[in-house]
Structures are given as C-alpha cells and as structure tokens.
Amino acid sequence: MAGGNDEDGSDTAREATSDEVLRLFKRVLQTAIDFDKELAARHALALTDLGCLGFLESSKAPVSGKMIAEHVALSTGATTALLDRLERAGLVERRPNPADRRGIVIALVEENARPILDEHRHMRDRLSATIASLTTTEAETVAKFLRTLLERFDG
Description:
By secondary structure, the chain is mostly helical. The protein has helices at residues 11-42, 47-58, 65-72, 76-88, 110-132, 136-154, and strands at 92-97, 100-108.
C-alpha cells in the first residue's frame, strides 16, 4: 500500500496501534523500574547496588572493580563507595586475584546475597516465560523493534 498505510489501509488504525505500543512500552519500563526500586528499598540498597549484585551473579569469570564500574556506569571512586557499602552489608567481599597477586576480585557472599537475587530472579523468570510463549515470528518482531529503538537512542 502506498503512503505508509496499514494492511487495512487506515492511517488512523496505525496511529492507534502506535499510541498503544508507546503506552504499553512506557508502562513496562515503569513496572520494571518500580520493581527494582521496591526490591532495592526492601533490602536497604541503591539501584546500582542491585545492578552490581546481578552482574556478579551472572559473571562466569572473576570480576574486578573496574569491570563493575563499567557495568554500572560509575566512576572508580563511586564504585569503591558502592563496594564498601555492599561489603559492610555482607553481600560481597574483596578477595585476592588468583591471576594477579597485586589485584583483587569482587565476589558475592552467596548466603547473604541469595535472598535478594532470588527475588530478582522471580521477575526474570516471568520475563523469560513470556518470551518463550512467543512464536518465532513474534519474537523476531519484538527483537527487531528493540534493536531499532536502541539504534535510534544510541545514534
């Protein structure tokens, strides 16, 4: 169809659908942000603290302070403060780096961090189940939308 009309030929229908996508996208983002804020507050954490714990949980290799700083987008000084907070809370510990005697790595204190990470995993599991319920075509369409959105924000 010419002029960017939808399959049914209606610009009005496309605008209504676009408005709904925008409204739903904003609601999903706000729901995710609210969930993380509430989880962090329940455990007296900042959002960056929660991001750090998730990063440590998902990392396969030893994690340096610099890697955490890059992941949570903080300066090295702010990352040191973050790690100090988490260490005082008993959620992480600094350990000697087995590959470099001069360095340290940051490790989760599993028994203390597990309850927080399990609560966060519950939300990720729901997200994974929702994604798994999509057909391949639907998942490809969602992925294309998200890639395009990121390209436009990054570019």
